[in-house]
Structures are given as C-alpha cells and as structure tokens.
Amino acid sequence: MTARPGIWVAVLLLGASLARGQEGFRSDKTVTLTGGISATAWRDLDGDGRSELIVLKKNGALEVRDVAAAGSASQGLLASLDLGHTDGVLVDVAPLAGLAWVVALTPKGAFGWPWRKGEGFPAKPQRLARRARYAIRSGGPRFAHFSRDVNKDGLVDLLVPTADALQLWVQKAGKRRPAFKKTARIAVAAEITVGKGQRQGDDDLFQTIHIPDLQTRDINGDGRPDLVIQHADKVRFHMQRAEGSLPFQPDVVLDLSTFKDTTPKAPLRPGWTVPGTETTRVMMRDLDADGILDYVITHRRKVWVFHGTKAGPSFTHPTSILKTADEITAVALVALDDDAYPDLFLLRVQVPSIARLITSFLGSLSVDIRAVGYRSLEGRRFDRKPGWRRSLEFKLPSLGKVIRDPESLIARIEGAGRSQRRHLRADLDGDGKDELVLFSEDMTSLEVWDGAKDPNHEDGQFDRIVREIFFERDETTWDLDRLIGFIEGLGRGQAKRLTAGAHLRFRLDDLLAGDRELVAFDAVSLDRPTLILTFRRPSAPDTLLLRLLHL
After folding, report:
1. DSSP E strands: which ranges in 378-428?
2. How far is CA 235 from the centre of its chain?
3. Triad 162, 165, 167: Cα angle to 5°
4. Do 397 and 441 share a structural domain?
C-alpha cells in the first residue's frame, strides 16, 4: 500500500516545525559599544515602528544609532548632540508638539531637542522651563522617566526631582511650542541607587535614578485620576477638574494627627503585645464596591472608617468606629473570604518572656503571633466580633548563632527572594500575541513560552498569601527553614501559574558564558521584533555587548 502524497507533506511540515522549535532564535548576533558609556535606552523616535538606540556618554554626548541597519554600531550613527553637562543631567524622550523630543533636566533648567527623521536634531535646544532645575550629582548623564501625563489630559508633564521632593510642571494646553508651568511641590523624593541591576526599559545600567509614580487615583468615581500626596501626617487630595487641570492647592487635607486613641500606650514588656500602630495610618480601598475610594484610619487599638462620596473624601463623620481589646502590631485590608468586600486583618506579635530571651542564646527563640480577622458587613462597617482567629508560633535561630554569623542568615533570605524569576512579555514573532520570556533564578538561562498568562494580571496575590499563611494552612509552627521554603515556593509557584497550560517554545542556556554580566534586557522592534540582552564584562566596564535575538 502506497502512502498518499498528502501524508508525506504533513510529515515534512511537522519535521520543519520541530526543527524550528529546536533552533529557537533564527538570528543571533552581538553588537559591541565602546567609549565611556553612561547609559542606553531604546526609543522609536520617528514613529516608523523601528526603535533607535540612544547612548549617553560620560563626556555629556548623546548619540542615536540604528543598530539593525548597520553591520556594527559604529556604522549606524544617525545623529549626536551635546547635552552641555557631564554631571547633574537627566534625559528622557517625550512626545511634544507631534514629535519625539529628547528632554534634558539640567542645573540651568529643562531643555528639549525635537527629532525629525532624515534631519536629526537642531543645532540648539529649546528651553522648556527655566526654573525646572535639576541639581543632584549622578556621576554622568542618566535616563529617568520624568516625562509623564500626570493629569491624564493627553499632554506630557515634567516631574523634576530635588533633594527632598518632586516638582510637578504641567504642560500648558493650546500652545504651538511646548511650555510648562509649575503647579505643585510634592514631598516624595527620588530614589538613587548605585550598582548594576537587571532592568526592563528606562533604568540605566550602572546607577539607577528612580522617580516614583505619583499616586493618582479616582477618589470620587468620575473617571478622572486625582492626585493624592502623602507626607508626614498630612494627606492632600487634588481633584482633577473636567477640563483636565489639577489645582495648586488641595481640595481636601487629611490631618492624621487628629486621629488618636486616647487609651494609654502599652509598654514594650516581655509577654506583652508589640505595639506597632503608634503612628496613625490611613489605608485607601473601595470597601463597598461602589467604585469610589474609601478610607480606614488606625491608631493603636482604634479603627475609623470613612466612605468616600462623589463630592470627594470627607473626614468629619466616620461611618463606623471599631475599638479592639488588645494592642495591634499590624493592620491591613485583606479579602479573607470570597465576597466583594475586603475585611479587616489585625496581627499581634507578643514580646518573648525573659526566660525565652535568656534561653534563646543557646536554643531557638520562639515568638507567638495572633491573627484576627473582622468580617466586612456589606462594605459599610466591620463586624465587632472576629470572624477569624489563629495563633501561630515562629521559631527564630538562637541569638548567639545570629550574632556569630549574621551574613549566612542574610544570604539565605536574599537567596529565597531570588526565587521570584524575572520576566518579560512581548510579541517576539509578530503574530499579534505576546510571548513570555522567563529567566532562571540565577539569570544564566531563559525560556520562551507561548500562551502564558500575564504576570500583571495576577490580582489579589497579597490577599491569597495572608489567607494561606494565617488561616488556611495546617501548620501553626514556623521556623526559618519553613519560612524560606514558603518564600521560595511563592516565586516558583508564580512561574507554574504563569506557564500552566502554556507551550515551552525553547530554552536558551549559558547566557553568562565568557565572563559576562547581564545588566539589562529589553524587547524592541528593529527591522523585526527583537529580544536584546545587554552584557558587560567586569574586565572592561566601559564596553557593552548587545545580543540581538530574533525568532
């Protein structure tokens, strides 16, 4: 019996498909960048769907390169400009007046260079805001994501970091040329860290300047994001107007210092509960599922509940007040059951007795923990009687052992934290569906998965962890080994959840071969979707190796 030709065609197609799966990336080339590099970033400057490489040099130069069109990066130089400063300058790319602009924050203010395809940058920059000065020394030009549409009016605004705050410069509407006005000083400092780190997107390679996200939340249910600024014991609410503007002065100010439990403070004594809520705190969450933000304020044993309205928050008349019998070490809003309303979770940690403290120098130290949950009654108030109770015991290593060798304890905890595997989602083959790139815990290998879940859509993970640890697991005694195992299980469990039902397309090993450190990973579009791994050799810190991978 002779097989029909269609069967052989199917076999050949199957073989070709398997061969492609084994080959993994169809194209794999490395580009070398040299010459005192401070940072790199990928941006589509001209809107053609292809990303250009922007290189910041330690001498204050900025270069734009087309890596895909050149055999080497040195041949792909499209344009360059002088930032005018070698230190104290932050760079971002922002859409302004219909073009992509390179925007620089300098000690002399904010400047911008518009990019035009085929022309590059103008010879001189445009001053965007004279008083938007950046004066923090950063050891060279750095990238930072300071251009953001804060008030969601479709125009990019500037967040200028100072030593202890952020200045908000809002772009003026209806202007032919970009113009900005200062509208607020926000008491949130930028974070500056020295050292390398894996990043996706905007963090630089050697020193990271992170400008924190402003807390913009719809506090009155009108669909417009409002600005919430918390500093010390004041929370300021700036409600966005219908035309998109944010008021310089807040509409509502919450003074947390006025909320105090007058019960005498409990002393920190052996056998007593650790008082952890001496500072008044506010938690913001939609308690009754009406789409409007609500507020829970806690101090010591007392809990105040305020429900938001369409007119905004009001902190004059609480919806309910709850007072617990014992001190509270920690408090949180957690979904402890399966209804739509978050519940009140209280944690009490007991100070070990004198006898336990003495014996802990030879043996382990045992700490008693009590968890209590108060059920939400249709989101309007919390039940006055606990709906959940659990007592746990946590055994720490002996104090003598910790004092003798604290590094080993720190190393174990850090190692457990690395079980949360780094990942990246992007359409790498151009089929309109994102693949998941999942790196190993030690960053020496990567996997590409088809059909994996989106990590950003894993809602309620904190609630699940609290429910499992304190109320659902059979174990009531925890030690360091069990805790570290649980932390490691969270990271590995996330990887299993993301890849459940997905197809492993291929695996790439030996990423760090040849004395390399992986300092960044990005997914960009060159002449086709590309995964880019950026490496640095410790022996040549001013040289970067870009590995370009195509499916």
Report:
1. 381-382, 388-396, 423-426
2. 22
3. 75
4. no
Q: How many helical (H) and strand (E) elements, i.e. helices and strands, does the chain have? A: 6, 38
Domains held by the chain: number: 3
Query: Taking all residues of the chain, what is their mean pLDDT, rounded to a whole number?
Result: 80
Q: For tokens 């850090």, what's the residue? A: 414
- Confidence at 190, pLDDT banded by 50, 70, 90: low
Which residues, listed in sequence order, are joined to residue 180 by a DSSP beta bridge? 171
pLDDT at residue 4 in the model: 42
Q: Which domain holds residue 441?
A: 417-504
Could you say which DSSP state residue 312 is in? B
Q: Kindly report, residue by residue over 446-460, the tens digit of the pLDDT.
A: 999 998 877 665 556
- pLDDT value, residue 20: 39
334 and 424 both lie in a single domain: no
5 phi, psi to nearest 5 deg: -60, -35
Task: Centre a 10 Å sphere on the Cβ of residue 49 and count the other Cβ atoms it contains.
Answer: 9
Q: 88 in a domain, yes or no?
A: yes
Strands of the sheet containing 37-43, edge to edge, are: 37-43, 52-57, 61-65, 77-82
Structure tokens at 541: 């810190």
Neighbours of 164 (CB within 10 A): 11
pTM of the predicted structure, to 2 decimals: 0.66
Q: Is the distance from CB of 37 to CB of 74 less than 8 angstroms? A: no
Instruction: Choose the final residue of a domain: 350, 370, 404.
Output: 404
For 1-50, the pLDDT digits (tens) are: 443 433 323 333 333 333 334 446 777 888 888 888 888 999 999 888 88
Give a yes or no: residue 61 inside a domain.
Answer: yes
Contact 158, 169 (CB under 8 A): yes
Phi, psi of 457 (to 5 degrees): -105, 15
Would you say residue 511 has pLDDT above 60?
yes
Percentage helix, strand, coil, to 5, in the chain? 15, 40, 45
List the one residue out of 196, 316, 173 whose CA is nearest residue 255. 316
Kindly report, residue by residue over 105-147, the tens digit of the pLDDT.
999 999 999 999 889 999 999 999 999 998 887 778 989 889 9
- Which residues are within 8 A (CB) of 220 and not within 5 positions of it... i.e. 6 or more apart? 226, 239, 292, 293, 308, 309, 310, 311, 312
